[in-house]
Amino acid sequence: MIDFHTHILPGMDDGSKSVEESIWLLQEETRQGVDTVMLTPHYYADENSPVDFLRRRYAAWKRLSEAWCREFPKVRLGAEVQYFEGICGIEDIRHLRIVGTNFLLLEMPFCRWTDRMIGDVLELNDQWQLQIVLAHIERYMAMQSPDLWARLRAYGVLMQSNVSFFGNWKTKGKALNMLANGEIHFLGTDCHNQKTRKPNWDLLPEHAKRLLATGMENIRLWQLDTDGVHLEFV
Predict the structure, then answer these.
(1) pLDDT digits (tens, 9 = 90+) for 68-115
(2) How far is CA 161 from CA 23, 175, 178, in A?
(3) Three-class SS of residue 133?
(4) How many CB atoms lie within 10 A of CB 230?
(5) What is the CA angle 52-53-54, rounded to 5?
């Protein structure tokens, strides 16, 4: 199991505040059966340049790695990049993709997206060998036109959903349908802390777990292969 979206790196954002809290979160991921975790702290262009962010990320990772335990999941460094106007003109954005992959996790504005925003996403998906993954798509769906999602998928944009989408009785049915129809490509907990936003794979219904396990041809789920560079369907 891969947790594609987390805020576990200590002191980077509104997620983990300490190495101790990060250790607890990783222990919980292990307990819940996760074997790979993407470490994706928030990136805000108005706070850091990509280079400054990478320096901060390395320092946080170094602190965490000094307390590493062998039983922890494998990890990959990345970022949850907040969309900003002009993003397509910043070549250094490519360095924020998940290490060993071409995935860039992109957080979109919480409003109805303009044609300019949508065009930027599609352009970015064609630049610098990037593969755009939209973060927690369930949060935007009610704000966008229904046909937008098919358009984005047709252009190769991938979708990440939070596990909580499956745990809410109001949205569980829709989440399962989207998973079965290949409209969700990655799952993540978006975990931040030990109390209010901890790893929550226990919310994933058994039916969803069966869908994930079957490898049915109509379910388009991606995973990293053993060397972490190429991609394959499962």
Answers:
(1) 988 999 999 999 999 999 999 999 999 999 999 999 999 999 999 999
(2) 24, 9, 10
(3) strand
(4) 10
(5) 90
Residue given tokens 């927690």 in the structure block: 136
Average pLDDT, the chain: 90
**Each residue of 24-66: pLDDT tens digit?**
999 999 999 999 999 999 999 999 999 999 999 999 999 999 9
Helix 172-180, helix 206-214: angle, nearest 10? 10
d(CA 231, CA 103): 10
- One DSSP character per residue, 82-103 reads EP-TTGGG-GGGGGGSPTTS-E
> Quick check: 18 and 11 in contact, CB under 8 A?
yes
Copy the structure tokens of residue 6: 């987390």
Residue among 33, 32, 41, 31 at smallest CA distance from 5: 41
pLDDT in tens, 169-180: 999 999 999 999
